[in-house]
């Protein structure tokens, strides 16, 4: 009697690790990094309030209507560029060697998404995402912010509130509280895990899509560009909407865990931590 081969679906921890690993790899692509000050100078070079914009953020100077106008232009520009670019062409060879075969296009896709997310976030008052010392990678705190941004772009449940609670400027009070604690001691850790799991599923889905489109080179290129065109505009719009809701104070009422319960979470050995996409048993 023959036995059927069973292939198990990835579990939540695997998907979460996939999301973090993709973010980590994408962050090493040179074009992904957006310098906040240079970006804002380019956007508002003719404004007489440039000094205030750089110091306080555009959200402190302009109306929401003006911010949205600039944000929509950014989304349109990124959508056009992403659809036109040949995927994987912008990834340096030393990074390509770190990426499994067939996954380079997906890593670059998420790199484009991270670039657009930074630009939108800077319009709405967020601080620099990458470390200012020239390091190419992201800090652990920045990876959490990226996961929140991407979750918001893909419509992950709870990601909008997660963005507000990891915010560096608009939600400064809450953001500093989160940053000062071990992640497992925050109310939002389960939301982060769910967001990461959802993103990991998206990475897996898009890896399959790219593999299929590459099977027919000419048609595959058209399909790949079409997928980017169809997805980037709504992704950007969702993130714009999240930051507008944040400016309107929709996420100001935050529930915090009691110190006793948070300590129990910290001491629970059943929950592994994930660093750069690798599961580390504690």
UniProtKB/TrEMBL annotation:
<keyword id="KW-0812">Transmembrane</keyword>
<keyword id="KW-1133">Transmembrane helix</keyword>
<feature type="transmembrane region" description="Helical">
    <location>
        <begin position="146"/>
        <end position="164"/>
    </location>
</feature>
<keyword id="KW-0472">Membrane</keyword>
<protein>
    <recommendedName>
        <fullName>Bacteriochlorophyll 4-vinyl reductase</fullName>
    </recommendedName>
</protein>
<feature type="region of interest" description="Disordered">
    <location>
        <begin position="262"/>
        <end position="282"/>
    </location>
</feature>
């Amino acid at each position: 009697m023959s036995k059927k081969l069973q292939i198990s679906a990835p579990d939540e921890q695997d998907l979460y690790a996939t999301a973090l690993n993709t973010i980590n790899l994408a962050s090493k692509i040179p074009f992904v990094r957006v310098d906040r000050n240079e970006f804002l100078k380019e956007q508002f070079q003719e404004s007489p309030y440039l000094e205030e914009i750089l110091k306080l953020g555009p959200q402190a100077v302009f109306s929401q209507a003006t911010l949205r106008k600039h944000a929509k232009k950014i989304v349109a520009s990124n959508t056009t560029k992403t659809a036109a670019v040949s995927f994987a062409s912008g990834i340096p060879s030393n990074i390509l060697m770190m990426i499994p075969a067939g996954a380079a296009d997906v890593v670059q896709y998420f790199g484009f998404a991270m670039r657009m997310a930074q630009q939108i976030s800077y319009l709405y008052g967020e601080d620099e995402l990458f470390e200012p010392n020239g390091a190419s990678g992201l800090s652990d705190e920045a990876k959490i912010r990226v996961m929140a941004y991407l979750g918001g772009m893909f419509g992950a449940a709870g990601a909008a509130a997660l963005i507000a609670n990891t915010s560096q400027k608009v939600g400064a009070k809450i953001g500093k509280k989160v940053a000062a604690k071990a992640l497992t001691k925050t109310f939002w850790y389960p939301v982060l895990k769910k967001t990461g799991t959802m993103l990991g599923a998206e990475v897996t889905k898009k890896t399959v899509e790219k593999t299929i489109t590459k099977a027919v080179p000419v048609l595959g290129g058209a399909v790949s560009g079409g997928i980017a065109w169809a997805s980037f505009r709504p992704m950007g719009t969702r993130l714009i909407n999240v930051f507008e809701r944040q400016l309107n104070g929709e996420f100001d009422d935050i529930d915090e865990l009691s110190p006793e319960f948070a300590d129990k979470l910290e001491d629970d050995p059943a929950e592994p931590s994930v660093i750069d996409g690798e599961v580390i048993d504690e």
